[in-house]
């Protein structure tokens, strides 16, 4: 294992931050850059999504409303996320990272500098990574240009805290040396970014993932009414499992959605081989447990339930159905609240098939969401029996998409509002929604709801 030690050319870290001074700087930054609450004219939305597919419309969505709660899973265990979790511990924050960066302010040179700083990825080479790390923690890296002192000292405080708590330099050696081959692929979606390091330091410091996200939201000037919510608020690692209809159990989100066969093989979410059988249900697993599957039942983040009670629209976003959307739906309390609401409930249908949904039609997507929210195949005493149209009342369909839209079966499920939206071709994933048209379709939906109420 590569061990560079502390080369003489590096001066020792001399940042002296106490816990109390870090809290003071953090609170000062919040107060100095507080955003006003959303006005009543803005529709409020809650989106269940993963970190990639929905990111493409986040910027356009801001033009309609900034009052959006983004609910994201914390069970990703593929690619560099797996290595980061293995070395640093805690929940997977890859999806949270990408959504926060998309939401962060870019309207000023300082806001853009903060975004670039926190989105910056350390080099794969261990020696280069260590050089970069020293320069950033010491405040001497060019990335700090245009970042004012309140921001700089806030971010450096948590990087320094992370450094002291984790003895990060040897860990950088371990991370980069042990996973070098798997990180060679240029298609890798994320590497070791400063967001992950700041997030880790803040999460340990506050003993709260929610507080760490709140810190980043204020530092990067995400509007206060725009929320990024982990569906499970935890400091622990979570593992996703699934049961297929043939009885097969698959452990790990990556193994379910896009397994790789060999550490150097690039991840391909679109062209992965088909599953031997369709997915029956997804659930959470532990290395310990009282039952055969080591199934566990984590508690949903209370903030998610609170938002569900009050938003004007609930969206099941584009993305991996069983590994990005359903992990947020199977938790106790989610189905109960969604079924009780009379608001718009929109399924944004994918434009292409993937390993999880090969052969699915639109009504199959609705059935999967219904089964997840009803916990149809879960614990016997925790099941619901709500109808599909109590969870989904509108389906958005990208024009020229691969998923068949079986209007008759949707009608049998009680869903008659099917909206076709202009699409575009993405060379990486195929047919996707054209962002402006998608947000216009949402605006028209809200307008129609208002007209009906009046």
Q: How would you describe this protein?
A:
The chain has 454 residues and is of the alpha/beta class. It has a domain at 239-453: 3-Layer(aba) Sandwich (Rossmann fold). The protein has 17 helices and 13 strands.
CATH topology of one domain: Rossmann fold
Mean of residue pLDDT? 79
- Poorly predicted ranges: 1-40, 174-192, 262-267
Order of strands, main sheet, comes to: 3-2-1-8-9-10-11
Order of helices and strands: HEHEHHHHHHHHEEEHEEHEHHEHEHEEEH
**CATH class assignment of one domain:** Alpha Beta
Question: Could you say what the CATH architecture of one domain is?
Answer: 3-Layer(aba) Sandwich
By DSSP, the count of extended strands is 13
Whole-angstrom Rg: 22 Å
Query: Oligomeric status of the shown chains?
Result: single chain
In short:
Pfam families: CofD (PF01933). The protein is of the alpha/beta class and 454 residues long.
Write the layout of secondary structure elements.
Layout: H1 19-32, E1 45-48, H2 58-64, E2 68-72, H3 79-88, H4 94-103, H5 109-119, H6 126-137, H7 149-166, H8 168-178, H9 194-206, H10 209-219, E3 227-230, E4 239-244, E5 249-251, H11 253-257, E6 279-285, E7 295-296, H12 302-308, E8 313-316, H13 321-329, H14 334-340, E9 344-348, H15 362-374, E10 394-398, H16 407-412, E11 417-421, E12 423-426, E13 430-433, H17 435-453
Parallel strand pairs: 1-2, 1-8, 2-3, 8-9, 9-10, 10-11
Antiparallel strand pairs: 4-5, 4-6, 6-7, 12-13
Helix pairs in contact: 1-7, 2-17, 6-8, 7-9, 9-10, 13-15
């Amino acid at each position: 294992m590569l061990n560079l030690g502390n080369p003489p050319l590096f001066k020792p870290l001399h940042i002296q931050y106490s816990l109390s001074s870090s809290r003071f700087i953090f609170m000062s930054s919040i107060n100095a850059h507080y955003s006003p609450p959303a006005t009543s004219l803005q529709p409020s939305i809650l989106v269940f999504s993963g970190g990639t597919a929905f990111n493409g419309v986040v910027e356009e969505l801001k033009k309609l409303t900034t009052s959006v709660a983004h609910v994201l899973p914390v069970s990703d265990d593929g690619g560099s996320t797996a290595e980061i979790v293995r070395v640093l511990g805690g929940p997977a924050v890859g999806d949270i990272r990408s959504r926060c960066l998309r939401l962060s302010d870019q309207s000023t040179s300082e806001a853009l500098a903060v975004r670039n700083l926190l989105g910056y990825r350390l080099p794969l080479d261990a020696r280069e990574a260590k050089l970069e790390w020293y320069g950033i923690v010491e405040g001497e890296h060019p990335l700090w240009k245009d970042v004012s002192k309140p921001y700089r000292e806030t971010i450096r405080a948590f990087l320094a805290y992370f450094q002291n708590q984790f003895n990060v330099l040897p860990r950088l050696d371990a991370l980069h040396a042990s996973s070098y081959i798997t990180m060679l692929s240029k298609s890798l979606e994320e590497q070791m970014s400063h967001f992950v390091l700041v997030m880790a330091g803040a999460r340990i410091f506050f003993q709260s993932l929610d507080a760490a996200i709140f810190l980043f939201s204020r530092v990067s000037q995400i509007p206060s009414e725009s929320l990024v919510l982990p569906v499970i608020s935890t400091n622990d690692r979570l593992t996703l499992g699934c049961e297929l209809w043939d009885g097969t159990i698959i452990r790990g989100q990556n193994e379910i959605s896009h397994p790789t066969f060999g550490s150097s093989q690039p991840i391909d979410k679109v062209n992965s081989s088909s599953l031997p059988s369709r997915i029956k249900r997804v659930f959470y697993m532990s290395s310990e447990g009282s039952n055969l599957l080591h199934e566990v039942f984590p508690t949903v983040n209370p903030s998610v339930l609170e938002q569900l009670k009050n938003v004007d629209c609930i969206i099941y976003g584009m993305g991996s159905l069983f590994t990005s959307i359903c992990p947020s739906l199977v938790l106790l309390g989610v189905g109960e609240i969604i079924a009780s609401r009379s608001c718009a409930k929109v399924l944004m249908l994918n434009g292409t098939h993937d390993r999880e949904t090969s052969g699915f039609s639109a009504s199959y997507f609705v059935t999967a969401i219904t089964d997840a929210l009803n916990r149809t195949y879960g614990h016997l005493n925790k099941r619901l029996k709500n109808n599909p149209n109590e969870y989904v009342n509108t389906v958005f369909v990208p024009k020229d998409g691969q998923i068949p839209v079986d209007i008759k079966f949707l009608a049998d499920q009680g869903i008659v509002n099917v909206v076709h939206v202009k699409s575009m071709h993405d060379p990486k994933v195929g047919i996707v929604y054209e962002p402006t048209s998608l947000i216009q379709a949402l605006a028209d939906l809200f307008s129609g709801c208002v007209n009906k109420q009046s």
